[in-house]
Amino acid sequence: MGPAGLLPVLHRLKTLSFKCTSLSAAAAAKCSSFQMSRADLWVGPTCTLLHRRNITVETALSHHGSELTDREKRLLDRLYNGLVGGQRASLAESITLVETQHPRKKELAQVLLQRVLAFRQQLERQNGGKPVAFRVGLSGPPGAGKSSFIEVLGKMLTGKGHRVSVLAVDPSSCTTGGSLMGDKTRMTELSRDMSAFIRPSPTSGTLGGVTRTTNESIVLCEGAGYDVVLVETVGVGQSEFAVADMVDLFVLLIPPAGGDELQGIKRGIIEKADLVVVTKSDGDLVVPARKIQAEYTSALKLLRKKSKTWKPKVVRVSSQTGEGVPELWEVMLQFRDSMLACGELQVRRREQQKVWLWSLIQENALQHFREHPAVQAGLPEMERRVTQGDISPGLAADLLLRAFRSSQ
Ligand SMILES: Nc1nc2c(ncn2[C@@H]2O[C@H](COP(=O)(O)OP(=O)(O)OP(=O)(O)O)[C@@H](O)[C@H]2O)c(=O)[nH]1
């Protein structure tokens, strides 16, 4: 097998194929001869072209499938059956498979994911087309009280009969190999709860890699029957923007402290927030918490609106006393219901899929370019001449791209 992921298959197929869950009527009519044996594996909207080339998701996956050894088939069947049966151990093992850097296992992960996606679509159809899970992103600076809050919210939700999964995106694990979030014991009670599943961030890889894994883990959690998926990140680097782009509701947690501690909170991320939660609103901290709540309420009025339907709210909670947590969940449900009713939530999910697709293309295409022999041969010389000021970066880029294209 060639380079990582689905790329080898896509190269063999000479084009990209992608899954289209919601074909327009026109596109569907155009593709009428294109229906596959499994209705849930439609491909469009460039389906005419793809059809001519006999390129479908099914072809791609059966290509993997035909190469599966008996052992691999047994592994995938065991994981799939365990996962859709709601077994935590199978979910954990499936996530390990999508986290792997091993090229062959990456392909197996894609086969598994495609099966789980088809299963999830089936569940969504049974659910009247509505999403089977509510995806909530939670971000905030270190020490904001995220894990304490998730513990309390998670316990309350499992008490109400929900199944809750918690996934972490930890940017520190990408750069230092250490972890801001993972080194201490977090959410001890929730981790013992049989209706909860907690997964720390992968301990290696780029943010792009961790994001991909988290996106794929969300699919697996939903397939395993978790109806609330919480994605947590610490407000460092770009990870909070990545999380905001993978959830239905994005929550920013702010501690009741002023000055320097809040300096790190980026304006851009406040714009992304659907809800701002001021934490630790208890004891002596109630007064500063109210002050922060008022400040953020005014600040949010000045910011660009993210949604036509929803006005971001600022609420106060205490994980220590539990005050405000049930009310906050009610606000979260109001958000979900109003966004679903007007269709914005579905649009947001579709847009997120596109953002995800393009970030994967970008990452893979750039890697392919960098690893290309013609580029590797010419790059040192081009870099040298650009840094010496002999040629412009624009011309050097053109030359390298030309070398890349001509040897394709
Ligand atoms: N008074 C009060 N303290 C709290 C509350 N929630 C959390 N804390 C304290 O705040 C500190 C940080 O809480 P965590 O929940 O670990 O915060 P975090 O955002 O997960 O922190 P990182 O794991 O570093 O990202 C701990 O000492 C908690 O005991 C609260 O509701 N009230």
TrEMBL record:
Keywords: GTP-binding, Hydrolase, Nucleotide-binding. It catalyses: GTP + H2O = GDP + phosphate + H(+). GO terms for molecular function: GTP binding; GTPase activity. GO terms for cellular component: cytoplasm. PANTHER family: METHYLMALONIC ACIDURIA TYPE A PROTEIN, MITOCHONDRIAL (PTHR23408:SF3), METHYLMALONYL-COA MUTASE (PTHR23408). Belongs to the SIMIBI class G3E GTPase family. ArgK/MeaB subfamily. GTPase, binds and hydrolyzes GTP. Involved in intracellular vitamin B12 metabolism, mediates the transport of cobalamin (Cbl) into mitochondria for the final steps of adenosylcobalamin (AdoCbl) synthesis. Functions as a G-protein chaperone that assists AdoCbl cofactor delivery from MMAB to the methylmalonyl-CoA mutase (MMUT). Plays a dual role as both a protectase and a reactivase for MMUT. Protects MMUT from progressive inactivation by oxidation by decreasing the rate of the formation of the oxidized inactive cofactor hydroxocobalamin (OH2Cbl). Homodimer. Interacts with MMUT (the apoenzyme form); the interaction is GTP dependent. This is Metabolism of cobalamin associated A.
